[in-house]
Amino acid sequence: MQKEMVKLTAKFKLKKTLEGLDYLFQAYREIVNFLITYAFENNVTSFYRLKKETYKSLRKEYPELPSHYLYTACQMATAIFKSFRKRKKKEKAKGKPVFKKEVIMLDDHLFKPNLEKGIIKLSTPSGRIQLEFYPAKYHEKFNDWKVGQAWLVRTPKGVFLNVVFSKEVEIKEPKAFVGVDLNENNVTLALPNGEFVQIITHEGETRTGYYLKRRKIQKKLKTGKRRKELLEKYGQRERNRLNDLYHKLANKIVELAEKYGGLALEDLTEIRDSIRYSAEMNGRLHRWSFRKLQSIIEYKAKLRGVRVVFVNPAYTSSLCPVCGGKLSPNGHRVLKCSNCGFEADRDVVGSWNIRLRALKMWGVSVPPESPPMSVGGGKPALTVNAIKGRSRRDGNNPPKFIGSAFGGTPRAFSFKPQRI
């Protein structure tokens, strides 16, 4: 068994904010901006060089500040400047970067949380102080996790401490891989037993609904407090519903993959740079937070000992998984291979190719797995509402019927967020 590190961030809302924190936020912002200016003028991208060349002067100017605040400020300034340089090369940034947020980066020398007592000890210019936080039920699972770095964040809703916890987990040797194809309104899985599972999410529809709602508010209310409150309200509501969907969706995917021990996802890191469609389609794809869903699936899988691999996404929905030939459109979302006659839904093809690529990465020789497969039709598949735990026949809006490479009954799970 191989061991891997899982990192999760927990949010702690502080009950009271002390006056001394005002100076801390102000001083930290001044230091970070000084370091950014120095890095910009001297083209410094190394944390060690930036710290070496600025530490003594900053120590003289801020003698009362614990030294590790200067270390974390150097880390933050370096990260901001590197990000600015990358964006400037792509002509997405100009001028000089400025740090405006009320955020302080902390390492494990500057704070110490006590989850049982509900307090956090924080180093400040006036000494070590104790801050109480509002306990949440999910905080309990981090009792035996290792504490890493944190961010102290001040917002109009209060002061929060976002702490990174880490835990070493054992990853089992996979028996096989489940291929996962993420799409706007569904997730399709290719199982090693030859079956395909499609989970209907309606995520794209939900996002578009909230987008149209916000546009309506922006057109009706041009300015004012009410406009800001409504936009924030619906933005938060959208985030809450999609977060709930992502966690339930990830649980279902990991549950299906657990007995096989392996899960394959597409490496979509640079996909936003290659999006070149219509204005409407570009907007829809940029609103789709696929990487967040992938990260949730990844950490939940690792906690259960499931191996996660990322494969090259190129041509996963356009190459035949049986013979490797080029697929051509053959009706709504159906692709057909002119070489071997294989025919299937494009999402089935995508998930199947993702699984095959994971096996090849693992050193498995992958032959054609089945005779040509056709997508079925007729009566709707059984839809299971995984949120409420009920099953029903949905005749008005049936999920796509997906065939199995080795026969068997197709399955579909439906997650349906409420509409606005």
Describe this protein's structure.
The chain is α+β, with helices and mostly antiparallel strands and 420 residues long. It folds into two domains: 7-169, no CATH class; 178-414, no CATH class. The chain is built from eight helices and 18 strands. It has helices spanning 20-42, 47-61, 67-89, 203-220, 225-257, 279-287, 290-303, 346-361, and strands at residues 2-13, 103-106, 111-114, 119-124, 127-132, 146-155, 158-171, 178-182, 186-190, 196-200, 262-266, 307-311, 327-329, 334-337, 343-345, 383-385, 390-392, 411-414. It has an eight-stranded mixed β-sheet, sandwiched between helices. A hairpin with a 4-residue loop joins strand 3 and strand 4. Helix 4 (203-220) packs antiparallel against helix 5 (225-257). The longest helix is centred in the middle third of the chain and has 33 residues, at 225-257. The protein is globular and about 75 Å long. The two termini are 46 Å apart. Mean pLDDT is 83; it is low at 369-420.
